Amino acid sequence: MMARMRTLTETAAYLKERDPQTAVTLTALRRMVKTGELPSITVGVKRLINLDVLISHLSNTIPQSTQQEPVSGIRPIPEKISYSKRGLT
Questions:
Q1: Structural contact between residues 15 and 57, judged by C-beta atoms closer than 8 angstroms
Q2: What are the pLDDT digits (tens) for 20-78?
Q3: 3 state DSSP class of 65
Q4: Partner of 4 for a Cys bridge, out of 17, 51, 56, 76, CB 3.0 to 4.6 A?
Q5: How far apart, in Å, are the Cα atoms of 19 and each of 2, 41, 80?
Q6: Global pTM?
Q7: Alpha helices, H only, the chain
């Protein structure tokens, strides 16, 4: 069976068609691809994702917020913190 590859826009439309109340948006799909959480391939300028892999991923994912690592030693500062927004430049 051939893989069901779709663009990000087509994938978001597919999910919305299957579940009109879905919280998975085009932006969320882009973020998952960018962070490597969702595998994709690039064809020209388009990113393609396998629908079956996405559905499997969404069905079996345990939220990362519930997977806490034990705290020991010095923890790294997340790169997303912007000190300029807090006036701490």
A1: no
A2: 999 999 999 999 999 999 999 999 999 999 999 999 888 885 555 445 556 667 776 66
A3: helix
A4: 51
A5: 24, 25, 32
A6: 0.63
A7: 8-18, 26-35, 51-60
Checking if the pLDDT of 12 tops 70, the result is yes
The token pair at 8 is: 């990000």
Measured in Å, how far apart are the chain's first and last C-alpha atoms? 55
Report angle CA 17, 27, 50 to the nearest 5 degrees: 60
Chain position carrying tokens 């969702």: 38
Cα–Cα distance measured from residue 80 to residue 46, given in angstroms and rounded to the nearest whole number: 27
How many alpha carbons lie under 13 Å from residue 54 in its C-beta half-sphere?
24
The answer to whether 50 touches 5, Cβ cutoff 8 Å, is: yes
| Matching residue, tokens 């595998």 | 39
> What are the structure tokens assigned to 21, written together?
């109340």
